[in-house]
From TrEMBL:
GO biological process: cellular response to heat; proteolysis
PROSITE patterns per UniProt: CLP_R (PS51903), CLPAB_1 (PS00870)
UniProt keyword annotation of Nucleotide-binding present: yes
Gene Ontology molecular function: any one: ATP hydrolysis activity
Coiled coil regions in record: 44-71
One Gene Ontology CC term in the entry: cytoplasm
Taxonomic path: Bacteria, Thermotogati, Thermotogota, Thermotogae, Mesoaciditogales
Keywords: ATP-binding, Coiled coil, Hydrolase, Nucleotide-binding, Protease, Repeat
Keyword ATP-binding assigned: yes
Domain of life (superkingdom): Bacteria
Name of the protein in question: ATP-dependent Clp protease ATP-binding subunit
Cross-referenced Pfam families: AAA, Clp_N
Length: 345
């Protein structure tokens, strides 16, 4: 329906959520008010920050928007099943306007604030009419957005920075043709996909000797995801490779590493399951970021999110390091499902 690569991580999540709204209300036409409702339901984004800056009653805005979404009723398909989704002209105009606003503000990607501006700029859209009822116009919104930016980066911007600074987007690299083709690893890739689709113990860890091609297997998965040749539950996923070196670099003081990792984890938790984190040399998370006399390390920060299913990971390590570090940490080990990787045949 739309190219998610044109959007920031948060805005892309919003656009995916609009499709969830269509399913929820058994509708098949994406309208501007779906985009507005998805923005409001997310609760933490630059657009909401701007609305709060203008003292807008978010709950009342949500109630009114939800009322308008419900008014259209459902499609002819059975509840919970939307066979084909369409973008209405007003929603398309909103997205086009949002893209123009991003360009005008010097931003490379469309953010939630641009979506909000796109709505108010598309004056004949339902979303614009709702916003106007709350006393809003494009000038007020633009000023509020600038105020939010001037008073420091929004949480959305901070989270985007965390992803770009400390991870490498393997799915994006696959789309750009930067990854080498992977041959003879279909079995391991299919096993990873199967594990990622589980409700429990759904974090695969590739275990094998150095140089057997564990990272290449993950890159093979990224190529399948980017081309859409995966089950529905893997579509639109982002496979991000953690750069532990960058995450630790420069963290001289107590709390710096923890804050970086917390921001990264919170960002992934807020992606509605759309981000899968690849941790090469998984054993390095045990003890990473710990300080003398302290017990906190990366693994202790990851375990709660893994246990609650808020964080999805793929790990890679050697059998020796797995036994030495991971296996001894029972709470960490039970979150992962091992996949043995031998030399390719």
């Amino acid at each position: 329906m739309f190219n998610l690569d044109e959007y920031t991580e948060k805005a892309a999540q919003i656009m995916v959520s609009t499709q969830d709204l269509l399913t929820r209300y058994n509708q098949d036409q994406l309208r501007s008010e779906h985009i507005l409702l998805a923005l409001i339901e997310d609760e933490e984004n630059a657009a909401i920050d701007a609305l709060k800056n203008l003292k807008v009653n978010i709950q009342k805005l949500k109630d009114k928007t939800e009322e308008l979404v419900r008014e259209y009723g459902g499609s002819q398909s059975s509840a919970g099943e939307v066979r084909q989704m369409y973008i209405t002209p007003d929603a398309r105009h909103v997205l086009e306007s949002a893209k123009n606003e991003a360009g005008r503000m010097g931003d490379e990607k469309i953010g939630t604030e641009h979506l909000l501006l796109g709505m108010i700029k598309t004056s004949d859209s339902i979303a614009a009419r709702v916003l106007m009822r709350f006393g809003l116009n494009d000038e007020k919104l633009y000023t509020a957005i600038l105020n939010v930016r001037k008073n420091g980066k929004s949480k959305e911007a901070e989270n985007l920075d965390a992803l770009s600074k400390f991870t490498i987007d393997l799915t994006q690299q696959a789309k750009e043709g930067k990854l080498d083709p992977v041959v003879g690893r279909q079995e391991e890739i299919e096993r990873m996909i199967e594990i990622l689709g589980r409700k429990r113990k759904n974090n695969p860890v590739l275990i094998g000797d150095p140089g057997v091609g564990k990272t290449a297997i993950v890159e093979g998965l990224a190529q399948l995801v980017s081309s859409g040749k995966v089950p529905d539950y893997m579509l639109n996923k982002k496979l991000l490779s953690l750069d532990m070196g960058r995450l630790i670099a420069g963290t001289k003081f107590r709390g710096e590493f923890e804050e970086r990792l917390k921001t990264l984890i919170d960002t992934i938790k807020g992606s509605n399951g759309n981000v899968i984190l690849f941790i090469d040399e998984l054993h390095t998370v045990v003890g990473a970021g710990s300080v003398e006399g302290g017990s906190l390390d990366a693994s202790n920060m990851l375990k709660p999110a893994l246990a609650r299913g808020e964080l999805r990971c793929i790990g890679a390590t050697t059998i020796e390091d797995y036994r030495k570090y991971i296996e001894k940490d029972k709470a960490l080990a039970r979150r992962f499902q091992a996949i043995d990787v031998d030399e390719p045949t």
